[in-house]
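Run log // design_07
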């Protein structure tokens, strides 16, 4: 049984194969070639304890286009929200459906769901990881740059779930990554360790620092994310003050390579983590990136449930 809980648990080959399949499925989608036989008769449950636009819609459409069925399960509307355990939820859902996508808080809850059921589990974001996002990001970078190995991605901002998964994902495909966060907001130590282990195998360089100017130097990709992730709303005022020097604006973009692309997982908050002229400007690829959630996740679904 294969799951997608954290990219560290997938080999570089598995990630590269998934990206290849994502590319093929995107080509078919764009050229009117249907692939609705691939998950015919399969059902996917989508459990959400947090809000979502992209993840929810792209998974629902992916299942439809692959010939399967999906059901949105708000954690508040199923018994999980009233205290039923992840373990009992996993065992029960395993009797009805063929896979679970879950967006929740603790990574350990997603791991428990995977361990206790007997169907594939896909992590649709936890406080510590966002692997589906990063697969779509890698697909996008490959489309724009023609390769992944040897490129440099600079992540500037909060050392959050997206940053953790980007570090691991980049390291797995041999891309160098430089992360710059304020002190006290670094990526988590476990993710740094996993990224460095992957990097040791692929030759990628993983750097964690505090200087955004240094991070973006010679970068092919400049990436940021919100300073206030879901669940941290009460810290907004404090964070905005601390993070202002980490804003991705024109001056910072000019320090990256001339042909650098700008990426953001979205939702974005203009004039906080990124200025409008950057995210709405010519270097931004954020909507191609959002679109690729559909194609990359289709590849994941086919790989795990096909
Ligand atoms: N990037 C991302 O996961 O977006 P949603 O929160 O809208 O799903
Ligand atoms: N870091 C953000 C990502 C949203 C897709 C959050 O967790 O809210």
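design_07 sequence
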């Amino acid at each position: 049984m294969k799951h997608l809980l954290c990219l560290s648990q997938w080999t570089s080959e598995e990630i590269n194969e998934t990206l290849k399949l994502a590319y093929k499925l995107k080509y078919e989608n764009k050229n009117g070639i249907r692939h609705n036989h691939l998950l015919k008769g399969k059902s996917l449950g989508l459990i959400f304890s947090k809000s979502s636009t992209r993840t929810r819609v792209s998974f629902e459409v992916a299942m439809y286009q692959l010939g399967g069925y999906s059901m949105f399960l708000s954690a508040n509307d199923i018994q999980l929200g009233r205290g039923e355990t992840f373990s009992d939820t996993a065992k029960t859902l395993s009797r009805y459906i063929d896979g679970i996508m879950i967006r929740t808080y603790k990574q350990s809850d997603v791991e428990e769901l995977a361990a206790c059921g007997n169907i594939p589990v896909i992590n649709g974001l936890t406080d510590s990881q966002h692997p589906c996002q990063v697969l779509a990001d890698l697909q996008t970078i490959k489309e724009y740059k023609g390769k992944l190995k040897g490129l440099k991605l600079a992540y500037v901002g909060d050392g959050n779930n997206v940053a953790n998964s980007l570090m691991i994902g980049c390291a797995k495909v041999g891309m160098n990554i430089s992360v710059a966060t304020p002190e006290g907001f670094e990526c988590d130590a476990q993710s740094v360790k996993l990224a460095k282990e992957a990097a040791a195998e692929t030759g990628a360089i993983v750097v964690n620092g505090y200087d955004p100017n240094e991070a973006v130097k010679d970068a092919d990709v400049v990436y940021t994310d919100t300073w206030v992730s879901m669940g941290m709303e009460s810290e907004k005022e404090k964070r905005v003050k601390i993070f202002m020097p980490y804003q991705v604006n024109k001056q910072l973009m000019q320090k990256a390579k001339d042909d650098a692309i700008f990426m953001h997982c979205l939702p974005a908050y203009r004039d906080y983590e990124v200025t409008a002229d950057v995210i709405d400007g010519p270097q931004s690829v954020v909507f191609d990136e959002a679109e690729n959630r559909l194609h990359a996740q289709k590849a994941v679904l086919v790989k795990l449930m096909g």
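The mean pLDDT is 98.
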